[in-house]
Amino acid sequence: MDKVKLIISPLLNTYGQMAIDELLVSNFAPCIRFFNWDARPQATFGYVQKIVQAEEELKNHGINLFTRRMTGGGLVLHKDDLTFSLVFDLPSRIQPNLIYTALHSAIQDELKKAGFLASVYEGKSDYNPQTAGGKVQNCFTNPVADDLMQGGKKVLGGALRRFEKRVLYQGSLQIKDAESQKVKDALLKGFLKYLNIQNFENYILNRDFLNEAKQLAQTKYRSKDWLYKF
User: Fold this and answer.
1) In this structure, which of 91, 96, 133, 152 has its CB flanked by the most CB atoms within 10 Å?
2) pTM
3) CATH T-level assignment (fold) for domain 3-227
């Protein structure tokens, strides 16, 4: 019987957390991970963006720890949000918008059952990181189709990247009590519903894996070559 690995990982800075997600793609599927930071605030920004155009905003928020994600999307300020990643296989190529629609709909259903009301954004956005010339914008001030909204504000967004037949999804939820167990349980149920798998098992990352992630964090995610890639 298929089971999803619920990855247990330590508190790390943004370099380490992004390194873990990259290594998960190569090692585990399907898997789900909720993760937190060793200090706040920190930030991540989309793969194709130019961080030099966001440095002033980061400085205004007192953020000194930030890195480029493997996935797309805008700048995400990690202050009091719940961050998570999902790795899964797809047998054939599917348009990204169809993945977002199905995944966010499953999440919305489970959040609603848990008493957290959110609606799916159906409007249009003029901002597209792929065509914005690398200009960085705050992800949560620019909702796009299938993001989740609450009280007129974007509260859940995600970005994905495909590696042959494997997909990495990275997301952020910014609602009250986002890090509560009740919210995590609802999200987990939403992920399982999307994957059409009923069971999961806790999996603690071992020392060798974490040492490899630590090295990758130093050599890639905090390097100037990666931060100023575009």
Assistant:
1) 96
2) 0.93
3) BirA Bifunctional Protein; domain 2 (3.30.930)
> How far is residue 54 from each of residues 2, 37, 98, 129, 209, measured CA to CA in Å?
42, 21, 30, 13, 32
Per-residue pLDDT of the chain (230 residues; tens, 9 = 90+): 589 999 999 999 999 999 999 999 999 999 999 999 999 999 999 998 888 877 877 888 889 999 999 999 889 999 999 999 999 999 888 899 999 999 999 999 999 999 999 999 987 665 555 555 555 678 888 898 899 999 999 999 999 999 989 999 999 999 989 999 999 999 999 999 999 999 999 999 999 999 999 999 999 999 999 999 88
